[in-house]
Design a protein that fits this description.
The chain has about 425 residues and is an alpha+beta fold. It is about 25% helix and about 25% strand. The chain is built from eleven helices and 17 strands. The strands form five sheets. It has a six-stranded mixed β-sheet, with no helix packed on it. Strand 8 and strand 9 form a beta hairpin. The longest helix has 18 residues. About 45% of the residues are buried.
Length: about 425
Amino acid sequence: MSCLNDLLRPLTAFLVAASLAGAPLAALAQSEQPPKRQSQQKPPAKPRTTTAPAKPNAASAAAKTEALPPSQVGIGTLAKQAFMVDPQTSTVLLFKDADKPMHPSSMAKMMTIYIVFEEINAGRLKLDTRFRVSERARNMGGSRMFVELGSEVSVEDLIKGMIVLSGNDACVVIAEGLSGNEDSFAERMTAKGRELGMTGTVFKNASGWPADGQWTTARDLAVLSWRTIDDFPKLYRYYAETNWTYNNIKQDNRNRLLKTVPGTDGLKTGHTEEGGYGQSTSAIRDGRRLIMVVNGMTSMAERAQETARLMEWGFRESTNTTVFRAGDTVAEAPVWLGSMDKVPLVVAKPVQITASAGQAVTPRVIARFDGPIAAPIAKGTKLGTAVVTLPDNRVVEYPLEAGADVERQGVFGRVTTMIRHYLFGWLS
């Protein structure tokens, strides 16, 4: 799939352009009620428990849902920023201030993890590669995996530490191991974000720890989420782990949807005092995937309830219709001097559209190509484009390929064809 950012941008002419200027972040701890810090000598068997936030009563919850703040697209939500997309069709289902700058919190770790996955795919890192823990890493506050000063930790353990345990210490170990220091690694993160199309994002560290000038947007995090899923299908599995034990300390993944919403397989939660509680989530059902980013909730409980409600709404109220299956013929193009008069033009991937559940949709499809096409033609050669106009007037383009091999005519056939063309072509 081409860059998701290119597919998402045309949808929302009404969207507010993101500004990177904003009030500086306060130096507040980025943490989601982590276990209390343990002594360096010997960590306890498990972290201390924390007091769970009080559950809102039924009356207050009902009052909230009766007057939800409106969204520019989709239903109202308690989130300050929200963005939901079907990446297979580039259809935005939910949009609320999704291009306004917000604090990334621990969702910034997805970029650190993306870079690690990229290094593994390129062969420059292995899962058993080990990095040494510095004093800076060991002393990180907030959520941690509790690495020991001077120890060497494998890349696989650090991946789990960042994803499952949301370890700020693990992020520093990775940043220092790959770039020497965290500042240099943050510059690499921002550059990679630009490469992926995250135009409203600036990273200042590897973990999302509050820092002046560090911003992102809900849309940008959705782009990062999809690229992670699409670019690293084998490594993405780590995002689905519900708990993990390191250094004799077992911690649960803060993404509660992994256990409560069917099909959820990632991605990352986050929290800062300044930005509130947020989450980037993805779920897949019957082959259809939805990606959602929300931020600005007031508690872990509210975040879990609201993300579950929105994800269920997305699957329930919309559905995908297949216009063409992979390999279906969209049109036929005339062939010049070939063993066949025409060559089928097919789509390599399914062409789908998203619409409200129960709504019949009939998109307009136009095949564009330069013809006649000179033989020989190899099957799979890109020959044109299928232009699909959706019911909401969005236009999405899909490449058209030759559906068959077409050999060049022999000498006698070519001569006959050219004589027929020059003598009688004017009659056609």
